[in-house]
Write a sequence for this structure.
């Protein structure tokens, strides 16, 4: 079982434990208890993407561990505490951590609880939890981060406690990815794999750039909030289906670009409109083509 852990921007949203599969109802992510979360950018977009992609791949759809948090950290800390208390019962094969308040102490408690399991899960991280992993000095305990170039600059700054404090000489521009990546690796702020999202996606496996995927390119995608969450949702699905992470990253990048061409979006296209067309992009023929490239 794969679990997605993250937050929704609603202070009144009580903790939703990962006690059943998700389903998608139009632009609403439906939880096992019947509650709905609107699919916009963020964890809901990631989870909706992973759900549809897992269905296309014929693997079990993920579960979601969600908390309401509007930036105070209260909901995220409730989620952290629940996960520490229930890690053994949950026993996930993999976990994707997403938008959560970056709390280094709680991050370390969660990491210890997961590492203590008889079979520690694969661990993917993006957004707030990725920040906490780096802040804590445990980035190398993870299997995959999915930063954009701005977040890569933060990972490259060995002194910055948060992306807001990334030093200005570490310029977050696509042409600076090679020197930023070199700093990330030199300071140990990298997991085994990186999927660096941008106009050109860089796939880094065991410290080596294995692929740079820059076509097809649909510039409007850069303007739509949540497209990076689609990429992270796709790599979650391919990992949940048992793909090696390096292949899963390449498949996610290529599939997101295929979806963009299919949708031909405008800058104001809602991300939910893109996500609902995933089944059209992830056709059996396309998945067979990707599978042939895994070796």
């Amino acid at each position: 079982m794969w679990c997605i852990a993250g937050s929704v921007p609603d202070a009144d949203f009580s903790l939703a434990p990962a006690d059943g599969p998700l389903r998608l109802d139009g632009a609403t992510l439906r939880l096992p208890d019947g509650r709905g979360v609107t699919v916009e950018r963020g964890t809901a977009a990631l989870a909706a993407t992973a759900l549809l992609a897992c269905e296309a791949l014929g693997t079990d759809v993920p579960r979601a561990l969600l908390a309401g948090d509007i930036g105070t950290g209260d909901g995220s800390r409730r989620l952290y505490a629940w996960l520490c208390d229930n890690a053994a019962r949950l026993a996930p094969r993999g976990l994707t951590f997403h938008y959560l308040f970056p709390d280094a102490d709680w991050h370390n408690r969660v990491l210890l609880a997961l590492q203590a399991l008889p079979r520690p899960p694969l661990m993917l991280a993006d957004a707030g939890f990725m920040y906490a992993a780096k802040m804590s000095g445990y980035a190398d305990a993870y299997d995959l981060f999915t930063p954009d170039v701005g977040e890569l600059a933060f990972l490259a700054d060995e002194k910055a406690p948060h992306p807001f404090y990334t030093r200005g000489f570490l310029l977050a521009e696509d042409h600076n990815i090679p020197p930023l990546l070199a700093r990330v690796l030199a300071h140990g702020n990298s997991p085994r794999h990186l999927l660096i999202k941008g106009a050109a996606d860089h796939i880094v496996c065991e410290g080596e750039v294995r692929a740079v995927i820059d076509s097809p390119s649909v510039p409007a995608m850069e303007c739509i909030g949540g497209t990076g969450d689609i990429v992270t949702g796709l790599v979650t699905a391919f990992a949940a289906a048992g793909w090696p992470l390096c292949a899963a990253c390449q498949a996610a990048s290529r599939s997101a670009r295929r979806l963009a061409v299919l949708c031909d979006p405008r800058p104001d296209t809602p991300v939910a409109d893109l996500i609902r067309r995933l089944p059209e992009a992830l056709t059996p023929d396309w998945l067979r083509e990707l599978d042939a490239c895994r070796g």
